[in-house]
Write a structure and sequence with these properties.
The complex is a heterotrimer of chains A (442), B (337) and C (235). By secondary structure, chain A is an all-alpha fold. Chain A folds into 2 domains: 338 residues, ABC transporter involved in vitamin B12 uptake, BtuC (Orthogonal Bundle), CATH 1.10.3470; 74 residues. Chain A contains 18 helices and no strands. Chain B has 337 residues and is mostly helical. Chain B has one domain: ABC transporter involved in vitamin B12 uptake, BtuC. In chain B, helix 3 packs antiparallel against helix 4, helix 6 packs antiparallel against helix 9 and helix 11 packs across helix 12. Chain B starts with a helix and ends in an 11-residue tail after the last helix. Classes of the chains: A mainly alpha (442), B mainly alpha (337), C alpha/beta (235).
Chain lengths: 442, 337, 235
């Protein structure tokens, strides 16, 4: 426990060394890509830690919130498709109005009608009728939109606003969905929140995969605007060419690395800002109250603290952070691919990051983000190298050998699982445990 | 009259029969989950991949049998392999309990730690299954595919619409009935079963009565592994095996268990059917059905599908949300919230 | 040599000591009652006798055998029965199943014992198939006591058996307890209703702050002016 203060810098030094090794033995471009993703993963893990570490909320729907962020990147920064708007804009608009009206009517029915069957059936009727009314407007509109130049667009496009707006909107959108889910499931068992968040994230992904008029579905959206310069443009610049020579690399490599360094810098700034905000929050009276609630909910309730309300706040904030990270990721990728959103890679991997890094400790979750993402990416090549070495004695054409080498990819799932289990068994509080009054300042 | 019968046949073939089969599979899955929840008091997120592991074992043994020429035509060979699959899965589950959960029980860890551990196990199982059997689609059913074919049925009844009763569907329903009956007999009539109910009801009093907790835990895992293997195999025989599908089944399975009342076996079964029927009912295209029933001029143009099949698990989710909003303890009031 | 005796028990749940040099004993066929103000350590003393908490000092002996380090389950096997104050039945299981669970440790045929319990508590026979959770408070207490009797214990310990029941039910319960004692079983009871309990007690222990304050027969304690004044609200 005495090593707490030194452990964080130690972990980062270790990470830096690892990344340098990757740069040397594999490629610098790869090393920087890993760094970029590490930073984004750390932001997501920070968001989860806010929910889990501060309030003990079990959110298993991170994938959905990240996807919402990605969707925001598309909807905010892509240029609008005028023909699509002309053809379907009105229909979509009416559909949205109808949906909102239905919801308001349903709420009004809930409040006005007498309890019991009347209210239940009344609300059901409103919702069913409203659903069909909305579909009446949506269906033809979406069909029309999707038929506008399906190969290139086939969707509404975005608003053409700057990138940072997209990131902010990503956070807001995620916060909104979190509010709805939170309202329904908080105050119930943590298992229920887990299932509900799992469900909502699957639905979000399903919507994104199927509603082509929104984000082109599985046709993906390419060419998403980004704040860093494009490699191709850079390669034309004289100063870039000169610098490349000076570094002893060719222009393509140099520009690619340069761009990655830019994005890493950007991500780092966002991470540091969010980290600073989180740390301030946790040290504030609000933060202390949150932890008091987490440690003894009944006592806190007895003292008049509105526990569910606080949980909702935390849930929204954490989800917003994940949304921002999701938007950043899509921007950096330059493309939005709904099929890559896979719960193991997103939701559960981030859980491993938080648990291994140290739940309740913001710095810990960042460390966890780095370490786990690094292993996730490197497990495959390292596993492959290891298996290659182990099977080097075998016949070059052996089917078993081929099968083993093919499966290196699956090894990382097993590795992640084992890392999580070992951590829970031997170091349940993670690499950087939470700093309580007892452990701090020694 | 003819039209009404036709409409009914249509509904039976595309809705009632598949939903009943699917409901049985979900019920068996939900039973495994609800048992673990009721007795070990945590939500086992690894259950989906346990089902995958079980099915994988059965597939491997089935292919061995098939290559040896052993079979029980017209029934699928997989049925012979199920006991072996159960053995393998039970061993795996007991080993993971010994290595992972037993420590958590000893240190009296919070239920959420068990949940996270189950996620770790989920990763390992997921990777293991993909590693051993690959990620491709596996069809391992053999034997007679249909109990009664479409054409045969139409000939028998003289209607335009028939029912094709697949062997896998019939098998699912029959097996589910047998398994559920056996389970309830075990829980209601045997000393061991009653001790498990007692332990689930009131742990302290059960310990006081001399009930051995480790034995109860062991029996729970054995039952859970058995149910998982059978459910997974039946699902795989019906719809083919792909490792990823079992993870996706987690949502409807848990929804079924929660809707029925977590910890209540009867609830798990009821929940399974509620979810299955809702999913199929809402995503079914009623066009043909309505066409049979209403006069020509009213015949619908569109598919009349409430929700596209891509969104079928949105249905489980919505039902789950409704239950959580209005009756969180579920239909049969399982463990309290 | 007392049948069951907890001698000079000192200890608590981990922090401060709740019991201080406390001695409780009971003989076969005897009804011993532990009374005292709230927080005096009455339930704690009984739990110490049953092994649900470890005592720092002192010893517990049953029929001369030292059982201080045995687990509660082991003590049940040796013939001790315990009826907790709350959560003392399996609410989702039928009355009959509750009794069956009570006899879990027995290897022999316990049908005869179930009949004995039904003789003692006739209403349970009537409701044998009903889930215990659906019974009234008093009937549930009967199930709880019946469950503990299924191991044919030599000592029966009850933690506030009449808590929250109406006076009529309380009287009935005490009548039953006397009947049980008559069969030769030693009864140890913690009670809040001091007056009624001491009425039927052969031996009474008044505990204050974890130590014995008064120890005497039930009658004598009832007559003791100090005891009456402090605990019995009498003149």
């Amino acid at each position: 426990m005495k090593l707490l203060k030194q452990q964080a810098p130690l972990a980062f030094a270790f990470m830096a060394t690892a990344l340098v090794l990757v740069g040397v033995f594999q490629s610098w471009s790869l090393s920087l890509t890993i760094l970029n993703y590490c930073l984004i993963a750390s932001i997501m893990s920070l968001g989860l830690n806010i929910q889990w570490g501060y309030a003990g909320l079990f959110n298993v729907g991170l994938m959905g919130f990240a996807a919402l962020g990605g969707m925001s990147a598309v909807l905010v920064t892509m240029k609008p498709v005028p023909e699509a708007w002309a053809v379907g804009g009105a229909g979509i608009g009416m559909g949205i109005v109808t949906t909102v009206a239905t919801i308001l009517l349903a709420i009004a029915a809930y409040r006005r009608l007498p309890k019991g069957y009347v209210r239940g059936w009344g609300m059901a009727t409103v919702i069913v009728l409203g659903y069909f009314a909305a579909r009446y407007f949506f269906d033809p509109a979406t069909n029309l939109i999707e038929s506008v130049n399906p190969a290139q667009t086939g969707f509404l496009g975005g608003l053409g606003l700057p990138v940072w707006v997209a990131w902010a909107v990503g956070g807001v959108l995620a916060a909104g969905v979190a509010w709805v889910i939170g309202k329904i499931t908080l105050g119930l068992r943590s298992d229920y929140l887990a299932i509900a968040t799992l469900g909502i994230s699957e639905i979000i992904i399903a919507v994104l995969k199927n509603e082509e008029w929104l984000t082109r579905g599985v046709k993906n959206v390419n060419g998403i605007p980004r704040p860093m310069p494009y490699e191709y443009d850079l390669q034309q610049q004289v100063w870039a060419q000169e610098w490349a020579v000076w570094f002893g690399a060719d222009v393509q490599d140099f520009t690619s690395i340069y761009v990655k360094v830019c994005s890493a810098g950007l991500a780092l700034v966002v991470l540091l800002v969010l980290y600073w905000l989180s740390q301030t929050a946790i040290k504030s009276p609000w933060g202390r109250m949150m932890r008091a609630i987490r440690d003894n909910e009944t006592a806190a309730e007895a003292m008049g603290k509105h526990v569910t309300g606080r949980h909702l706040q935390v849930f929204i904030l954490g989800s917003a952070v994940v949304g921002i990270a999701g938007a950043m990721m899509t921007t950096f990728d330059g493309q939005f691919t709904p099929t890559t959103y896979n719960p193991l890679r997103f939701t559960f991997l981030i859980w491993v990051m938080v648990i291994v890094g140290g739940s309740g400790n913001n710095l810990g979750s960042i460390v966890g983000g780095f370490v786990i993402w690094f292993f996730w990416v490197e497990a495959e090549p390292m596993g492959y190298a290891l298996l290659n070495f182990l099977t080097s004695g075998m016949d070059a054409d052996s089917a078993l050998r081929a099968h083993l080498l093919d499966s290196a990819a699956h090894m990382r799932l097993i590795t992640m699982g084992l890392i999580l289990l070992v951590t829970l068994r031997f170091r349940p509080r993670g690499l950087l445990p939470e700093q309580t009054a007892r452990t701090r300042g020694h | 009259m003819h039209d009404v019968l036709n409409a009914f046949m249509l509904l039976s073939n595309f809705l009632i029969v598949p939903a009943t089969a699917y409901g049985s599979q979900l019920a068996l899955g939900a039973l495994g989950v609800t048992l673990v929840y009721g007795i070990l008091r945590f939500s086992n997120f690894a259950h989906g991949d346990t089902m995958a592991f079980g099915t994988m074992s059965v597939i491997l043994v089935t292919s061995v049998f098939q290559s040896m020429g052993i079979g029980i035509d017209p029934l699928p060979t997989a049925l012979l392999a199920i006991p072996f699959g159960i053995l393998a899965t039970t061993a795996m589950v007991l080993i993971s309990d010994r290595l992972v959960y037993r420590h958590q029980r000893k240190v009296r860890a919070a239920p959420v730690v068990f949940l996270i551990s189950s996620i770790g196990l989920m990763f390992v199982l997921n990777g293991l299954v993909r590693f051993v059997i690959g990620t491709g689609d596996q069809r391992f059913s053999d034997g007679e595919r249909f109990i009664i074919r479409f054409g045969e049925f139409k000939k028998l009844t003289g209607l335009d619409e028939g029912i094709a009763f697949k062997t896998s569907q019939g098998l699912t329903i029959v097996t589910a009935i047998i398994v559920v009956a056996a389970l309830f007999w075990f829980l209601d009539r045997t000393r061991a079963g009653k001790s498990m109910r007692a332990y689930s009801d009131n742990e302290d009093l059960a310990l006081l009565s001399g009930i051995n907790p480790e034995r109860v835990v062991m029996i729970t895992w054995i039952l859970s592994a058995t149910l998982a293997t059978i459910a997974g195999t039946l699902y795989g025989l019906d719809k083919g095996f792909k490792p990823f599908t079992y993870f996706q089944l987690l949502l409807p399975i848990f929804a079924a268990a929660i809707v029925g009342g977590l910890g209540n076996p009867l609830g798990a079964i009821a929940g399974g059917f509620v979810i299955a029927f809702s999913e199929v009912t809402v995503t079914y295209a009623y066009k043909k059905f309505l066409t049979y029933l209403v006069p020509e001029s009213w015949a619908p143009e569109g598919l009349v599908q409430l929700l596209s099949t891509d969104y079928k698990f949105a249905v489980s989710f919505v039902i789950l949300v409704l239950v959580l909003l209005f009756k969180p303890t579920g239909i049969f009031a399982g463990k309290s919230v | 040599m007392s049948f069951l005796i907890g001698q000079s028990m000192t200890g608590g749940y981990g922090g401060a000591d709740i019991l201080n040099d406390c001695t409780i004993a009971v003989e076969r066929g005897e009804i011993a009652v532990i009374v005292g103000p709230n927080g005096a350590g009455k339930s704690t003393a009984m739990k110490a006798l049953f092994g649900m908490l470890t005592i720092r000092e002192g010893a517990v002996q049953l029929e001369g055998q030292d059982i201080t380090h045995l687990t509660p389950q082991d003590r049940v096997a040796l013939g001790m029965g315990f009826v907790p104050q709350t959560n003392n039945v399996f609410t989702s299981m039928s009355v009959e199943e509750n009794l069956e669970m009570g006899a879990f440790l027995r290897k022999d045929d316990f049908r005869a014992t179930i009949e004995q319990v039904f003789d003692l508590f006739p209403i349970l026979k009537e409701k044998r198939k009903q889930p215990a959770g659906q019974l009234s408070g008093g009937q549930r207490q009967q199930v709880a006591v019946g469950r503990a009797l299924m191991t044919q214990p030599k000592v029966l310990m009850l933690d506030e058996p009449t808590a929250g029941v109406s006076p009529i039910v309380m009287d009935e319960l005490f009548d039953r307890i006397i009947e049980i004692a008559r069969t030769g079983i030693a009864i140890l009871m913690v009670e809040q209703n001091a007056r009624q309990a001491l009425n039927i007690a052969d031996k009474g222990y008044v505990l204050v702050q974890g130590s014995n304050r008064f120890t005497d027969t039930g009658e004598a304690l009832m007559a003791n002016p100090e005891v009456r004044r402090t605990f019995l609200g009498g003149k």
